[in-house]
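INSTRUCTION: Work out how this chain folds

Fields: amino acid sequence; protein backbone structure tokens

Chain under study, with its fold:
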Amino acid sequence: MKLRNLVITVALLAVLSVAAYLGNRPEPAPPADPRVGKSLLDPDTVARASGIMISDQGKTVELTKGADGIWRVPSYYGLPADMEKISRLMQDLNESKVDRFVTSTPDRLSHLDFKDSGIVLKDSSGREIWNLVFGKAPDSGNGRFIRFGSEPVAFFSGLHVWLDTDAKGWADARLVTVKPDDVAKIEIPLATGDPVIASRAKKDAAWTAAAPAGQKLSPDKVASLLTTLTSLRFTDTVGSKDPAAEAAAATMRTFRLTTFDGKTLTIALGRKPEEKKPRTPAAPATSAPVAAKPADASTAAPEAETIPAGPVFATVSSSDAHAPINDIMARRAFEVDDYTFTGRPQKPDDLFEADKAK
């Protein structure tokens, strides 16, 4: 009888042990995801993209490619987008990989902060073709937790990418796309007198110009000016009827660049000048009347008030009727750095040097 009870007890213990094992054993490892070890974004998807939407912290910016193949920023006056910046972003996503699977458990996913940060690519019909959602960074601070679209699966990637949602930051700030080597002739206006016209037969030839007696054109000064003009970028834009822009238009001095293929680029720079005028007297405080003092002929003239010069504006136009800059200039006025204006040649000495050969 005792043996029988022992056998039953052992059998029950065996059953309980099996049940405990089955109840407590770890989840089987999920099947390997084919995306692990692969690039986040493949070149074929990039080639099909005609729209990029970037979101972060409640803000979104969208870039679109038109039928003419030009990327633009619709929310920043439709200006052309900075292609170098777009290329860097796409390259960063292509070079970053899905390093490892993290979880598909809803409770764990909820702690990875997948909210409104991400990048979406769309095709020419507006259909979403790629969607990467960003979660928080790990405690180490390197990389991000990611997931693709609304999939309930999280991965980790060591990518480093800036989710820039400032529309202005995506606009191409270049106002001139001509390269210094493309320019065969440059007309340089001075504060007084005739402009200086410098020219060269080919890109590696010396610049020449009609010079005052005993002087010659300084190639370095011309090259420096040409670099400044061909690297012209805007810092801000305002409406074409903005008072500061209209005041600047009345003071502009115009440079003309002629390229080796015969096209002309006109660059005008101006600003409202500094102004001095008598300071408006302050209104007297309300108080008991004070006896007027007799006029003193030696009293100094009213103190002058200085009104600072306005911002520098640039206008650019091309002899090529199809050049995008012509349309852009018709819609906005563009501010540029002060140095572009203040560094202009003012007098012949700013362009010529002593000719020691004479």
